[in-house]
Design goal:
Length: 302
């Protein structure tokens, strides 16, 4: 596999020169759907944007295809999350760096001392940063800065796009805060398939419990299911949640375990955790996804 990847990179490097591009726009490649949406809002039609991951794709497990490697090699800019969220792409990014291209980890702009720690990831931090809107705003400001630096001719346009989107993120922030106030503090317990919502929980005073831990790479064991079902009964939790990028069966097993103890817990809906919804829908955008998640959570737990 390593060898194939190297050959693909080498061949593509030889085969691609700047003047062979079909236009003069910057080629920008992104990893997760959240980052793709952010860059689309700032770059607009002025860039050629290619997102590697689609809706419903789990970034923890995502491996680069040969086609992806070609896109990465041809890119003028690569934006990714970092903190080992895209765990299986690290090797490809390291190879890129060796060939003189520096992929940009957007989490590099965040002050690490403010992050939630995690022993699970090689980065030692929980990488699900986008559920804190302030961090996502820092991502946006960095994307805008990089686009302006690489394409000074269109700098003003990127700046305007960013300022417009920034205002929308600020109003998202206040809308979300209002909606969450509908939920009393004691009902703010969020049980989901994996621990993607710790930053969300910290921002809005939720206790967050994930069945599979921080990454989806390890499956939940029988013991985890038993422990968590006892917790759900003890706290009289009304609903638990499926995630769009994680198989449903883990949460269904938890619901069945609660039922076997003579209690009932609803499945409150599907949350978008590590990927946005389908392109062209509201949930296919970061703002729409956040609103959808919060409405689903608040309405099910009320
Ligand atoms: Zn995750």
């Amino acid at each position: 596999m390593k060898k194939i990847l190297f050959v693909v990179i080498a061949v593509t490097l030889l085969g691609c020169k700047k003047d062979e591009k079909n236009n003069n726009k910057l080629n920008v490649v992104t990893t997760t759907t959240m980052i793709t949406d952010l860059v689309k809002n700032i770059g607009g039609d002025n860039i050629n944007l290619q997102g590697l991951m689609g809706s419903g794709v789990d970034p923890h497990l995502y491996k680069a295809s040969e086609g992806d490697v070609t896109k990465l090699v041809n890119a003028d800019i690569i934006f990714y999350n970092g903190l080992h969220l895209e765990g299986k792409l690290v090797e490809v990014f390291e190879k890129m760096e060796r060939s003189g291209k520096t992929p940009i980890a957007l989490t590099d702009v965040i002050d690490k001392s403010t992050l939630i720690g995690s022993d699970y990831f090689a980065s030692n931090y929980d990488p699900h940063i986008w559920f804190n809107i302030d961090y996502f705003i820092s991502f946006g400001s960095e994307v805008s800065r990089v686009l302006q630096e690489k394409d000074p001719e269109n700098a003003q346009l990127y700046e305007e796009n960013w300022q417009n989107y920034y205002k929308r993120l600020l109003s998202l922030k206040s809308d979300i805060t209002l909606k969450i106030e509908e939920l009393p503090k004691e009902k703010r317990i969020l049980v989901t398939a994996h621990d993607a919502f710790n930053y969300f929980g910290r921002s809005y005073n939720f206790e967050v419990v994930g069945l599979q831990g921080l990454s989806t790479a390890t499956e939940a064991g029988v013991q985890d299911v038993q422990k968590l079902s006892a917790f759900i009964i003890e706290k009289s939790i009304k609903a638990i949640f499926v995630e769009s990028s994680v198989p449903k069966r883990t949460i269904e097993a938890l619901q069945a375990a609660v039922k076997s103890k003579g209690h009932n817990v609803e499945i409150g809906g599907t949350l978008y955790s590590d990927a946005l919804g389908n392109a062209g829908t509201d949930e296919g955008t970061y703002i729409g996804m956040f609103e959808y998640n919060v409405n689903t959570i608040v309405n099910a737990l009320k």
